[in-house]
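pinned: reference chain
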Amino acid sequence: MSWAAFITPVVMAGALWLMTRSPYALAFAALGPIGAVISLLEGRRGGGRERRAAAAERAAELERLRAGVELAHERLRRALRRRAPGAAAALASMEGPALWKGDEAVVALGVGTVASGLTVTGDAREPDELALCHLAERLDGAPVVAFPEQGIAVCGPDVLARAYLRGLLVQLFAALPPGRLGPPELIDAAGHARGEWDWLEALPHCSGAGGAVVPRFGVFAQARLVPPGYRVVVSLGSPVAAAVEVFGGENRAGSGSAEHALLEASVAPELVSRAEAERFVAALVARAAGLGLGAGTRALPAEVAFGDLPAAGGPRLGASIGRTQHGIAEVDLVADGPHAVVAGVTGSGKSELLVTWVAGMVSGRSSAEIVVLLVDFKGGAAFRPLAALPHVVGVITDLQHGEAARALSSLSAELRRREAELARLGVRDVAEARGALPRLVIVVDEFAAMIDAFPDFGPLFTDIAARGRALGIHLILATQRPAGVMRDALVANCPLRLSLRVQSDSDSRWVVGTDAASRLSASNPGRCIMSIDGAATEVQIARTTAADLAELAAASAHSSPRRPWLDPLPAVLTRADLPADAGRQVVGLADLPDQQQRAMLTFRAEEAPLLVLGAARSGKSSVLRLLADASGLDSVVVGADREHAWDAVEAAAERCEDPDAADSPGLLLAIDDADAVCARLGDEYAAAWSERLARVLRDGPAAGVYAVVAAQRQAGPMRSTLALARETVLLRQPNRQEHVLAGAPAELWDEGMPAGGGVWRGRRVQFLAPGPHLETLDGVRIASAGEPPARVTLVPARGSATILVSRSPARVLSRARAAGLPAEAVVDLTQPPVAGTLVPEAVLADARLPTGVLLVGDPDAWLGRWSLFAALKARHPIVFSGCDAADVRALTRSRALPPPLSPGSGAGWLVSADGRMRRCVLEAA
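pinned: its structure tokens
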């Protein structure tokens, strides 16, 4: 409350008392102090509420931050436990799915405090804020991770040290399978002498060749006795506490980065008894025996060369693909199939398996016995080396831009063709056809990706799987996770299964009936489990090199097998790509995937009127010239020039009204960018031009006039006119919506359609690229598009008169005088008459003028002398220069539009005495 509010009641009360002398007036003086006291109390009360609210809000915000930090800490703990679960978890995993699923050789030294890697930003000043920042940086109760290959020394009493070290070994051998982990280097002379470490010799990891990782451990009485070479030293003081020291770098207990560096030396260790370790080893040995791992690994090579395998040969589809523990691994799609499923994660060698399998099948066989169609949804790089084999009839990659529908049509057509061929031969299946039909093997990499992108392929492949054996069509379907992607009806016909390394036991069991594929080592690509009718065998797939494939291609008979799958139409098509007997009327090729062939695309003038729709740079102009050349008729080809377009359509419309026009030679009228012409003409001219063009489209064929019109889209005043076309050629459209609205199938939409490519008669077509004689407008035979503009001289001949209407008469007169016209031969209606000079009526009075006369006026001046203008118009042509169509129609009293003028051309109109209008050009002489 301000002092003014406090003093005002006192002053007012004093004034009232002076005026009234009433003691009651002095009571008002108390209002000031009372109000001030009340205001002060209320302010203190309100300030207390605000402070309490702010404190509560701050406490709530800190609590939210604390909860977020604790949640992030829990996530980090879970991540570290997944990375290094600890000894107890390792013992519990002996019969579980987590066994041998580790990605790296790490162990948990125990539970302790490490750096979280979290920071709380902001300006922390208060104690509770500083405490929260400190809390965020520390991760309590987290596994302390270390790498055994860097060396771990355990110090302390023998019993404690060996129990702790057994916990580290159990963790390590539960995480990594045989082949990835070798026997440990363990220094403990007294322990070896007493047989403390004999149980290690039974481990499947310690049988045969060593793995990629060799852990190093040591047991010592005291830390000072540890020799150099051990990164981590663990000192055990009691069964519940140990101290960890890290040497040779940053204080990070084996962590790959400083993110989880050890903050406190003390950790809570895990101890494992010898009895527990021996039970653990027994469980590992049993699991390894069930999976064919361990000692058996010594008999299976880590790498096999395709050149070392024998060719399978034979009348079926046997192929040598690698080695087993007992010899050559052979598969036969006819005997073991007829179809196969291949599973494997990225990097497991799936593509290498498919390449080797295809190479094994074609080895020793000609393309008359087997052909291969390859489908790769990873870009085609994996199958590119196979393209050189004569047996490969197609390599399909990604199936973009309508290729999916084309694939469905082609493969469905192949089924029908083979059924018809077997029926013609009178046999039940391809085995009885005695080589009349080669077996077709369709290899699909990333089958799941293909089905996700194109669900319509599911029923087709199910149909092929059901009927393929009799028709000689075999499927090899590869994917990362087949479970849930392949239909039961499809899988039921795929008894041949091969699984490289997969992510989960369920995936492995789904493919090969055992979880062995999920235990395969990621460090040995090409290792797989092969299941034929439920019998599983471990196989090392052979590696096929480019030299192996080149040798196969050279040894194969280079015949040209029939291709069930044709390549898409080329982006550039020339006459040289057509058959030798292709005539002049052939303008391109049409793709017929449902008939597994291509057809020549022809054009005859009788098929007009024809509409060509396409976006900018889609090849409209080239197609227009190509059709004009193929018609064999005299052609008028017009571009976006509005004078040329108007005259050509006007002449064609007049011919349509001529009853004798049908006896004249045929004419092809080709109009390019019709919608652009319409836009440049303006509303009035566009409506008239569209009406004349509609007449040509409708009545032209009967008069021998055949129109081909090109435009970007059907819109505006041209929509109803272009709808009169008999057929539409649809070139590339700007988007799928306009493609469909134009009447083309949605599956033929292609945003990357090359110039000259399009859709005609429901087919994907590619028009010929323009030849040298069609690259310019003059290359096509061009008939006259109308009479040339008339020439009008500014200096009339003796005895003649030039009647001129101009919006700039002064400029015209200046040009005339510069050309030598004498002043006495000029009549300017815009100026008052001068005595002794010619008057306009003199042009009417004299039959022959003594000199040439130029009579000039602007539209307003001539409208003021209308009777004179009408009399002159009946005897002399009228020239309109620098005027517009409204001026012409106002003075001539005609509703007819004069022909349009190109902007900046300097042309005008010449109106003859009979009312005919044509363009003209004013010349100096």
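why pinned: The longest helix spans residues 31-83. Residues 790-923 form one domain.
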